[in-house]
């Protein structure tokens, strides 16, 4: 099997559809059909290698190349390639982007192609996320579970804070009810050793921050909005930033950054999705709220004692989403039969267990989940908090809408100014909502 990594999406932009033509399925000189599978995660790509080797052994005449494109360039180049009538034969897609491809007829209808029997073996929440009018538009590959707190146990011990205290804490717009902020203040230490609750605390010279508050959508914005009883969108995909409870959640996050200084300045985190993760791995952030997709990164990168605990609650409890990722079939593929065979394989327990077996991600094929649990148990890592947080509650709605990416281009600069404090929260959220909803 050939395993290709595209190191810079700029190449795709410069060459236009030429790259797209190279990545579509072709018959090799030996008569084999070569399919390309596009994704953005290096860790899962490595796990896929074993699965693809097994697929090729069982399907002589079909070769598969993995096309790993960095996240920052992934969707721009994908849109250009698929829109031109080319593109990879199969590709990962997320909930925020899938609507455009469904509306434009770019995806293979999985309900018609693979049938209800196959669908019954997949995580229900992911099936529901990628279905419209009873039709499923991709094969579920990953499910994130819920969010959890990754904690630097060494920093917690130094500050006299326990992981259990953090998971038992509650945040609130009402300071009298807020038990999370005092813990984060104890965990935020300046260069002179003063914590953020001290009158001598120097916010301009912070050594370690307590928390990763930032404009990150899945694990920060949505969690705080939903745990306060707010909304992010309505059923039609219109943004609802001005919902009263949503405004309160954003105000709380902005205050963590700019008033209490328990999180890094937004100038560092805006547009840099990996910043707080990397700072956590370097021992500069005590509590990192994130999903299962960062578990392998933390396990390989952290050189301190760490653990996982449930996230804190808000006024409406512990709100978190549980989004998934699908692998979609490109309707442009010149080899639909071979494409279908690979989709079937990736949706089977045998094909998906490779993902879980190395702990790279949680398989959305239900019978492959055991391999994931077994891997992390063998690493002495308890993954329970990612899943116990979802027990007895309905996960919050992941972002939806065919126009979301275009909306995000319109509102993100405004929202960035809200997080830096350049624009007041209420004013900025109104501007952001208006800009997003003006996108047709």
Give the key terms.
globular; signal; alpha/beta; D-Maltodextrin-Binding Protein, domain 2; about 45% helix; SBP; five-stranded mixed beta sheet; disordered N terminus
Outline the structure in words.
With 440 residues, the chain is an alpha/beta fold. It folds into 2 domains: 209 residues, Periplasmic binding protein-like II (D-Maltodextrin-Binding Protein, domain 2); 208 residues, D-Maltodextrin-Binding Protein, domain 2 (3-Layer(aba) Sandwich), CATH 3.40.190.10. It contains 22 helices and 14 strands. The strands form 3 sheets. Strands 1, 2, 3, 4, 5, 8 and 14 form a 7-stranded mixed beta sheet that branches. A 5-stranded mixed beta sheet has the order 10-11-12-9-13. Strands 6-7 form a two-stranded antiparallel ribbon. It is globular, with a radius of gyration of 22 Å. Its main location: other. It comes from Gulosibacter sediminis. This is Sugar ABC transporter substrate-binding protein.
Secondary-structure topology with pairs:
Blueprint: E1 2-5, H1 10-15, H2 17-23, E2 26-27, E3 33-39, H3 42-58, E4 62-68, H4 71-83, E5 90-93, H5 98-103, H6 110-113, H7 115-119, H8 124-129, E6 131-132, E7 135-136, E8 139-143, E9 148-152, H9 153-159, H10 163-168, H11 180-187, E10 189-190, E11 206-211, H12 217-227, H13 244-258, H14 266-269, H15 275-281, E12 285-290, H16 295-301, E13 306-310, E14 324-329, H17 336-346, H18 349-357, H19 369-378, H20 384-388, H21 404-420, H22 425-437
